[in-house]
Amino acid sequence: MDIFRLIQDIKTHLKLSFNEVDKWFDKDNKTLNYQPSNGGWTVQQILEHIYLTNFYLLILIEKGSKKAMRNYNDLDVNNEIKNYSFNQEKFEKVGKYGAFEWIRPEHMEPKGELGLKEIRSLISLQYHQCLNYLDLMKNGEGLLCKTTMTVNDLGKINVYEYIYFLSLHAQRHITQMQNNELELM
């Protein structure tokens, strides 16, 4: 496995996802506040949900990266790299809106307590946090810690995969926002 290629691919995915999310902050109020006919979230609520989900995922990513860096002294990163294969197929559904039932915890539901400017700024900071973690674990260290991800039965995933999951989650909701906008037209 070319770990450097994997890290670069995740960085590229993050950039594309976060850039696309950022464009939604420039939409007009009618688009941002449109309540879809299915009773789903408005674009503004979706943006807040993306921020909240990133917030909680980044707590796990931070813990995982610290543990991975500690494990660097005790585990053979080269052996981990040699035996690792990224199963992109098992992650594909995460980025597809409606591909499976997604039951989110209550603390990830938008409450309308944050303004749009603040959410935009926080999401931008979260993007840079992800890049910093990838830079910190630039030599494969992210493989040295796995944490269970219950969403879509992903099971134990490493820190790189958690960051990729975060990016896919945003991609999933980009589709949801696009659906809202299409229905509004």
From TrEMBL:
Q: Which domain of life is it from?
A: Bacteria
Domain called DinB-like: residue spans: 30-177
What protein name applies here? DinB family protein
Can you name the source organism?
Chryseobacterium kwangjuense
